[in-house]
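A favour between colleagues. Tell me how you read the following sequence-structure pair.

===
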Amino acid sequence: MEAIGAARATGRPAHLDALVARDWGRPELALCLLVDASGSMGGDRLAAAALTAAACAWRAPAEFAVLSFARKVQVHRALTAATVAPEALVNELLGLRGHGVTAVAAALRAAGEQLAAARAGRRITVLLGDCRATDEVDPVPAAAAQAELLIIAPADDDGAARALARASGARLATIGSADEAPAALADLLDA
């Protein structure tokens, strides 16, 4: 408004680069991607995580978080973070090396904390991994507490993921290779 007022006062049109528009609508979708970086994950499975993170950046660029977990949860991109270049995020995920135990419940609780700050109407946790909790903490209560949980599991190791999906009401897709991850995510989101 200041640019328009100043331009009118001098009898000239406002410059386009002086005008700013604000969108007061809220985002439709907030995503929190959980990447299993435990000992059972590696190679193609972590490459699938990188591709899925890139798909999240494309699908919900305003509100998405990316966390990896083994024994502890690591935040790679917080939901409320300033813009992080998708290339940098993908490179960081490609640098992960699978190790340690799998704290699925802790990761799901961290996702809930990230999504609590979302403005979007739809808040989705995307868990990418085999869902085999090896820290002896039952992940079902944390999974059931998610507003919406989508699980993308390796097709050759999906038993624990299927059990978690059944017990928590999550939707599940399995993938045979990393290049199937973005399509699996799109199918789950549109279901």
